[in-house]
Amino acid sequence: MRIVLFLWAWLLSVGALAAPGDPATLDRGTWPEQLKNPTLFDVASRAEILTFARGLLASEALDEAALAQRLGLRTVNMDAVNRLRGRLWQRLFNGYDHAQQSCDQDASFCFLVEDVPTLREQAGKFQLGEESYYIKWAEPSRTFHAQYLDELLRKAALFPQTGSEIDRFGDYERNGDEMNDRLFLLSFDSAANLQPDNTDWLAEYLRKSNLSGTFFVLGKDVQARLAEHSVASLQATFSQQCVGVQGWEFRSHSHWQDWQDSVRRSADLVKGKLPENYVPLFRPPDGQRRSDAQAFFNAQGLQVALWDIDAQDGAGKLKGSQSAQRVLTLMLLWRHGVINFNMKQDAVKTALPWLITQTAQSGIGWEDCQDAFR
């Protein structure tokens, strides 16, 4: 009975959270420890997993009408929502199972979790006492995960009528689910705005850091660069990096009549001018693409490259520091995945260096872009 009452208290509290569309972020300064070794990464990871799992469990008490009201929607696709919940529980358990391997070195947030049912049980009971060393983090983290869960549930509720990265249409679409524990891939979207373009800065920063990322470029942007600079200059910009495509221009590829030409033209241009950097990947703008496109992408030798950790730095949604702290929190939560930054927002110039510095001793790895999605 106490657990039931606690869950309903949670549900009532999240009704006072930010309006739909406000991206979640968390001040990592509320966490009292630096991620200065792999064990401390695991401690923070277990804490974030349990907090998110508690919110996920509470959300299951909502019926369809209550969920629609919470998400600010008229209707919800409950089948898609339930599929999402199933995937989330499995991924949370897999992550916690990895994170609990270091419990013999630091027992903080360690509970007996052997499968999804025991994770659900522990999540339902999870709560910090007022004297906890981590108490200043507890409420900000709860708020973050409630907002973030709503982001995910809202996308699932609208899928597939509104396409997004929340689910895949087939095996030709890839995200970060299959990556190894503690391994992350950096990726960069173009987005619609033309300025500022931080591509050159990002590529140079990654090279100096001995890192690589996948840049998803627009065909018209590459064409504009070539009108002012040589092919050699373009190749120098993307040296040691990977380049996929995001279409000829940044617009939804779900209802655009010329979407196939958009993909084909941009892929042919990049493959021809950047043969050493080109990777056969298409990232749909805003995740919007057709559900019946598998035959086309197979014929083109392309995969659809989605993501599962969104920096929410597009269109000035979050400042650089907020974006970076959001990404780090989601890295702790999911423990692997594809990170999506916006190369045309200045926030990335603050967020990326901070993120690299904060995780330098945490035991994570950065996937080589040439090895991703194979």
Spans of at least 5 consecutive residues with low confidence: 1-19
Question: Which range best describes the helical content: under 10%, 10-25%, 25-40%, 40-55%, 55-70% or over 70%?
Answer: 40-55%
Average pLDDT, rounded to a whole number, is 93
Structural class: alpha/beta
Report the strand count: 9
Order of helices and strands: HHHHHHEEHEHHEHEHEEHEHE
**Annotation field: number of helices:** 13
Query: Which homologous superfamily in CATH is the superfamily of the largest domain?
Result: Glycoside hydrolase/deacetylase
Supply the CATH class of the largest domain. Alpha Beta
CATH topology assignment of the largest domain: TIM Barrel
Largest sheet: 9 strands, parallel
Strand-residue proportion: 5-15%
- What is the number of independent domains? 2
What coarse outline follows from CA principal-axis ratios?
Answer: globular
Please name the defining characteristics of this protein.
TIM Barrel; 2 domains; 374 residues; alpha/beta; nine-stranded parallel sheet
Could you write a compact summary of the structure shown?
This is Polysaccharide deacetylase family protein. The chain has 374 residues and is an alpha/beta fold.
Written description of the protein model:
Residues 1-18 form the signal peptide. This protein is an alpha/beta fold and 374 residues long. The chain has 2 domains: 2-21 and 28-158, no CATH class; 173-371, Glycoside hydrolase/deacetylase (TIM Barrel). It has helices at 2-14, 38-59, 64-71, 78-99, 116-125, 135-158, 199-208, 219-228, 231-237, 259-273, 294-300, 320-334, 347-358, and strands at 173-174, 183-189, 213-217, 242-245, 278-282, 303-305, 309-310, 337-342, 365-366. Helix 7 links the parallel strand 2 (183-189) and strand 3 (213-217). It starts with a helix and ends in an 8-residue tail after the last strand. Helix 2 packs across helix 6 (135-158) and helix 4 (78-99) runs antiparallel to helix 6.
